[in-house]
Amino acid sequence: MFMTLSLSLFLVGVLGFIINRSNIIMILISIELILLGCTLQFIMTSAIIDDIIGQTYSVLIISLAGAESAVGLGLVVAYYRLRGTISLV
């Protein structure tokens, strides 16, 4: 069940990244969904095989996602101030 959930989160993120190339906010949300799907898969796999390494990787991925969100939103604000819109088209 969790494998299908993490795979569906990952695929929705990849499809959102491919389809919505013109909106920066949707691209950032899609990247977050991709990282969330990977994190869920690492956590569930490490719980099944009773290993701590997957949970360690998931903490690393969550911190990477937080840093990506902060930097991405900072870039969006700077791009909006420069161009007046956040559309990439």
Compute the CA-based radius of gyration: 15 Å
Return the CATH topology. Helix Hairpins
Helix-strand topology string: HHH
What is the beta-strand fraction?
Answer: under 5%
Number of domains: 1
In whole angstroms, the N-to-C terminal distance is: 39 Å
Overall CATH class: Mainly Alpha
How would you sum up the major sheet? Answer: none
The total of beta strands comes to 0
Specify the overall morphology. Answer: elongated
Kindly name the structural category: mainly alpha
Helix content: over 70%
What's the overall average pLDDT, rounded? 91
Low-confidence stretches: none
The CATH level-2 architecture is identified as Orthogonal Bundle
Q: Note the total helix count.
A: 3
Polypeptide structure, described:
Helices cover 83% and strands 0% of the residues. The chain has a single domain (2-83), classed as Helix Hairpins, CATH 1.10.287. Helix 1 (2-19) runs antiparallel to helix 2 and helix 2 (24-48) packs antiparallel against helix 3. The longest helix is centred in the C-terminal third of the chain and has 31 residues, at 53-83. The protein has helices at 2-19, 24-48, 53-83. It contains 3 helices and no strands. The chain is mostly helical and 89 residues long. The model has no long low-confidence stretch (mean pLDDT 91). It is elongated.
